[in-house]
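pinned: reference chain
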Amino acid sequence: MKRTVSLLYPDHSAYTRGRSQTDLEFIGELRLNDLVVPLASRGSMWKPKTFELARYLTSDPAVIRYRLDVLEDLTDNPDLCSTFGEVLPMIEDMIEVSSGRAAATDVTACLYAASELEMYIDCTDALYSGLNRAQSLKSAGLRGLFEVVSEVHESPDYASMKERLSQLMSSVRGIRSITVGVNLDAQLRSVEAGVVSINTQPFRSGDLLDRLLRLDVTDDGYRCITPLLPYGYNAADPSSVALNSGINRAIDTIFRSVVQKWKPVIRRYMTDNIGYLRGLVDEIRLLLSLVDLVRKMRDLGLPMCKPEVCDMEDKAFAAEGLYNPFIALSLKDPSIDMVLNDFSFDEDGMIYILTGANQGGKSAMTYAVGIAQALCQLGCFVPAKSAKISPVDHILTNFPAKEVAAIGKGRLGEECARLRRTLEKATEYSLVLMDETLSSTSALEAGYIAGEVIIGLSLIGCRGLFATHLHDLAQRVDTLNAHPAVKAKIDNLVATLKSGEGEVRSYRIERMKPDGMSYARSIARKYGVTLEQILEMRQQGTSALTSTT
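pinned: its structure tokens
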């Protein structure tokens, strides 16, 4: 009976449900491949250096919940993660052996299959032991895997196959030498040759010096009078190739009758049982990488929470203590220096205009929202103390372009073209993230275009975050919300400053109406160019000149 189990999908139909992401630019923009990194193993060379994360993104809440339960079990059971880490390269090696079997000779191919079966047994025993030791598995995925592994491990066929395989492999691997008999004619030319015996001990050199070094003076029948080929003989030499070819044919002939009886048995057993392990390779690699990310953040003293997954129609995103993991990784002491912020979309604010001081946390917050959304839709814990998140059908990003992408349009033209593509793809269930969009033109032009785009997003009804230096745009929120066809309310967020001498960035994001002039006043005060500072400077200069005179 063929067995199937998945640690990422509750059933086969779920594999294709909810995979509506067509714009995958956000994967690179949010640097997800730098965050979710495949763990190194001693596996095959074909293993990719990065994940095709697009394969695993889903907007199906049932699939996300299924994965989160599996991930929770794994984070609670470090020993089970170690078991998966040991099993993963075994399965990779098993796949390599299987691919090599196709190009081998008949008997050698059967021995390949026996080796493949041996690795399968090692994997099954390791998984059974690891899952059996795990404490209180709650996830349907890992319980389902344990049921499949237990069914295999405890079956009479498995026990019988394991015993017979052990006998076969010990007899084959016990071969250390063969005795060859050669008949000669009157001119001492070989006329026929054959295998006299197969031995479990290797032959040794009969050279006197070798015997003295080995302290070997006995004659037990395993001593060569002279080697057939001199030491250091080129293995590619025709004589060496012919000798090895002849020996291999002889061994094939000897073992053919024994091994060929195994061939249909091994093939049938492996066909019925090995499939579920092959399918787990990429899933285990992804899950171990997600576990590694969770542990890495927690080791820094920062929270990684299992989000509550809501239906897509709820349009939920509410996070307490949200942060950007890339910022955390760059800090000397993240547990002290990292600023956590609360953030949510709700009926009074589904599209936010985020303003504030330069380098005050606007971009970090925009990225944090996108990363949390994407990680959730991979089935991963998110960087926050707690979170409620609905999946979206698209994550659409408009971040600063590294270069002009279209000759003839100019940077502003290209930015407008990108905005148009975003508006074409967005639905009421999309998340749109914009960071310093329209920074290539004057504040007057950028403010007008941005206002039109934000109203357009509001008419669509999607969720959005627009981080910008356009403080005048933030002052127009009431006017933007006054449009008769608005579906998603627009609100303000502000990256605040700490009050006092030489106001400094707090990296706190507050839901409030901004004072657009406060940032200009702060910058002017910092560099000593407020009117008060200018007059004071002039007075000091005049006083100095008078005293000198």
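why pinned: The domain at 300-514 is CATH 3.40.50.300 (Rossmann fold). Residues 10 and 63 are 6 Å apart (CA to CA).
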